[in-house]
Amino acid sequence: MKFFHVNHDKTRLLIFFCGFYTDENCFCEFDNNTSDILYIYDYSDLNFEELSYFDFSPYVEINLIAYSYGVFAANEAKDYLPFIDKSIAISGTIYPIDENFGIKPKIFDLMLYAFNENVIKNFKEKMELNSNGIIKNAKREIDNLKDELNNIKNYVQNNEIKKHLEFDSVIITKKDRIIPYMAQKLFYEKHKNILELNTGHFPFFEFNNFDEILEV
Questions:
Q1: Does the pTM exceed 0.90?
Q2: Is residue 123 a contact partner of residue 103, using CB atoms and an 8 Å limit?
Q3: Measured between alpha carbons, how far is 8 from 131 in angstroms, rounded to an integer?
């Protein structure tokens, strides 16, 4: 995993688990300078223990947003996270590859088998579809992105996914072309605080900033 710390000299911290392909560049326009932000991305290495080396002690409030495959990563990193005041899952579940709750295995394997620049371009276009805006480009290399997918697949095949991070709120995207709406809906069917948005996989343009999301 990689970390990008945005320091606004605040006593609030937002831990933001990015999804596949994305990094801090994709979300910077939603930063309204009211919290420091720790972006976590690049799951080509799922060494969650690295979170232990970040100093959380200066912060009196810590919130968490997990997006897309970041929901899976946040769940797996649970034991290395500090106390979280509020957590929100967006457009994802804890199962990155799953017949019922995630991207179907055959679709995932097809994307991985044919992985090239066009696959990345099509993936970003599907993220933007019905999402009311243009996503800023991530600064990621194609080999790194392929390693990310391979590592996630290997992790899922060799580890039991355990549901132990209970998100306070969930945002489900009804026109999602990446992680199917029904997969999200089925996984969270018993959750008490769900906001369903009539958007695609990247619903951030429905909000002005991260603080508005944290109010969900």
A1: yes
A2: no
A3: 28
Neighbours of 123 (CB within 10 A): 18
Task: Report yes or no: 15 and 38 within 8 Å, Cβ to Cβ.
Answer: yes
Nearest to 179 by CA among 112, 64, 98: 98
Backbone phi, psi, residue 102, to 5°: -150, -155
Q: Which two tokens stand for residue 172?
A: 């489900």
Detail the DSSP E strand segments found in the chain.
2-6, 12-17, 36-41, 61-67, 86-90, 169-173, 194-197
| SS3 (DSSP) at 27 | coil
3-state helix, strand, coil in the chain (%, to 5): 35, 20, 45
pLDDT tens-digit readout, 132-151:
999 999 999 999 999 999 99
The answer to whether 64 and 84 are in contact (CB under 8 A) is yes
Domains present along the chain, CATH in parentheses = 2-214 (3.40.50.1820)
77-88 as b/e, with b when 16 or more CB fall inside 10 Å? Answer: beeebeebebbb
Q: How many alpha carbons fall within 13 Å on the CB side of residue 132?
A: 11
Tell me how far apart the alpha carbons of residues 107 and 97 are, in angstroms, rounded to a whole number: 9
Burial class (CB in 10 A: 0-12, 13-18, 19+), 127: buried
Instruction: Report DSSP state, residue 204.
Output: G
Q: What is the pLDDT of residues 112-127, one digit of tens each?
A: 999 999 999 999 999 9
Q: State the sign of the Cα–Cα–Cα–Cα dihedral 10, 15, 19, 23.
A: positive
